[in-house]
């Protein structure tokens, strides 16, 4: 394994993350045509374990939804959710009174802080063709000083999110700084709100047989690369196949070369919070 690569791992349903991130999952569902109620036809739900439908071998899943796919109201405390919708739409509502529909490149950033209930559902808007939402759900931890901050809700609309485009690459700067292109401001109590924490969320596309050089970060930053679409990428002499992730040295000179197909990559990085994390189920 290359000296720049610390660890390589397969991407399961839940992707392995490093501090300050707690969780990351990539949703891609080829939903059928919807009905006027934004749900699949009832006969398509027969035999599915409604309320807990997560079979990775299916073309689409209902998740915790009973009629419309998605995640009905559930509580979060002490961290942030960042929902990046590349395709399709998500319907959001929460106990702060916020509600709305976002998608097609929009990002929703919610600081749960002292506690909030929210719902994220995937409406089947098209009644005459397939519905295909594709999104990332990312959880970013909060430090002890901000664990019980006031909940905060922020939309980053795709028209405002910086995107760096060349003939070879496209980099969507959702958080952080990519070669002096700064992301929109995150919520005020976020670990990402202080530039010294070097938090970055970059959604990257590299054209077939082309390459991208990542800007270096400082020693002490945790950096993970998730390769989720394409055939292979090469970093140094190391070939990495689709649906694998790597943790890399932050200060290394990293050049990512795509294989014979366009490579799609998510990069998460940040200075670790280095505080204990307690997980509990709230009623």
What does this structure look like?
This protein has 283 residues and is an all-beta fold. The protein folds into 2 domains: 21-158, Jelly Rolls (Sandwich), CATH 2.60.120.10; 161-273, Jelly Rolls (Sandwich). 0% of the residues lie in helices and 45% in strands. It is built from no helices and 23 strands. It has strands spanning 5-10, 14-15, 21-28, 70-76, 79-87, 89-94, 99-103, 107-111, 116-121, 134-141, 152-156, 163-165, 169-175, 177-178, 181-182, 200-206, 211-214, 222-229, 232-235, 238-241, 244-248, 254-258, 263-270. It has a 7-stranded antiparallel beta sheet, with no helix packed on it. It has a 6-stranded antiparallel beta sheet with strand order 2-3-10-5-8-11, with no helix packed on it. A 4-stranded antiparallel beta sheet has the order 4-9-6-7, with no helix packed on it. The mean pLDDT is 96.
Radius of gyration: 19 Å
Counting DSSP E segments of at least 2 residues, the number of strands comes to: 23
The CATH architecture designation of the largest domain is Sandwich
| String of helices and strands | EEEEEEEEEEEEEEEEEEEEEEE
Helix/strand/pairing category: mainly beta
Q: Which stretches of 5+ consecutive residues score pLDDT under 50?
A: none
Task: Tell me the domain tally.
Answer: 2
Tell me the major beta sheet. Answer: 7 strands, antiparallel
Mean pLDDT: 96
Shape: globular
CATH level 1 name of the largest domain = Mainly Beta
- N-to-C terminal Cα separation, in Å? 45 Å
Question: For the record, what is the CATH homologous superfamily label of the largest domain?
Answer: Jelly Rolls
């Amino acid at each position: 394994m290359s000296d720049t690569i610390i660890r390589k791992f397969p991407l399961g349903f839940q992707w392995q993350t490093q501090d300050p991130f707690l969780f990351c999952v990539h949703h891609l569902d080829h939903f059928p045509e919807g009905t006027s109620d934004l749900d699949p036809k009832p006969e398509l739900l027969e035999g599915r374990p409604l309320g807990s439908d997560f079979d990775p071998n299916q073309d689409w899943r209902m998740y915790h939804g009973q009629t419309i796919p998605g995640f009905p109201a559930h509580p979060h405390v002490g961290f942030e959710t960042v929902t990046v919708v590349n395709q399709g739409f998500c319907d959001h509502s929460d106990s702060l009174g916020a509600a709305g529909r976002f998608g097609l490149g929009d990002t929703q950033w919610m600081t749960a802080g002292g506690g909030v209930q929210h719902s994220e559902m995937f409406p089947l808007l098209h009644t005459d063709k397939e519905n295909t939402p594709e999104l990332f759900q990312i959880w970013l931890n909060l430090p002890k000083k901000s664990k019980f901050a006031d909940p905060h809700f922020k939309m980053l609309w795709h028209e405002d999110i910086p995107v760096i485009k060349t003939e070879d690459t496209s980099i969507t700067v959702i958080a952080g700084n990519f070669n002096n292109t700064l992301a929109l401001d995150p919520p005020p109590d976020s670990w990402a709100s202080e530039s010294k924490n070097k938090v970055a969320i970059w959604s990257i596309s590299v054209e077939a047989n082309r390459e991208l050089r990542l800007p270096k970060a400082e020693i002490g930053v945790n950096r993970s690369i998730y390769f989720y679409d394409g055939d292979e990428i090469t970093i140094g002499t190391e070939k990495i196949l689709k649906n694998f992730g790597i943790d890399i040295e932050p200060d290394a000179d990293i050049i990512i070369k795509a294989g014979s197909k366009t490579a799609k990559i998510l990069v998460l990085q940040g200075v670790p919070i280095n505080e204990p994390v307690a997980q509990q189920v709230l009623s």
